[in-house]
Amino acid sequence: MWSLSEPTVALAVPKAAMSDIRQTSMEPDMTTDVAYAICSFNDIPSRRAMGFQLMIVAEDGSQRPWPIFVIRWGKQVFGYLNMCPHDKVNLDWERNQFLDGNGLRILCGKHGSLFEIGTGLCVDGPCKGESLTPVALTVLDGDICVTGVTLVEDDEDEEAETGLQCEEGCDPAGPPWEATKSVV
Asked: How far apart are CA 67 and CA 55, in angstroms?
């Protein structure tokens, strides 16, 4: 976690104290001044997306899964809840496959709905006119960070402290951005 003064890129994700960044997460009234690094900016190539399975602390103190995805477009990042507004299913039809064949729109793999990358607005499909739920992100010191929410952290050991669990092919002793939050 880091202290923030100004985000390098704003639209989603924290890593430090952030009192001046507008909240756009799915959790209303969960203002937090903490930013959580979820990956390195360079881990997501431009015009690509990556999903994350995080655990969030709800307003009532309970913990629940919070699946999100991040799209990098040049020097910008956009984050959304991984849930189609039409049928409440995950958008990715295959792991980390969130974009259409041209890489220009977000695609719901179940019903074919198409969403604008920059706004999350559905422009075609069963949920036309509805929008994806945005996730507050920022880039800080080369890391993409989630802000405006409280993520579950476990202090038992370094891996548990970050709440990260390696995916296939990552080195558990490697940098934390080679992992995703575990969904308990």
From this structure: 8
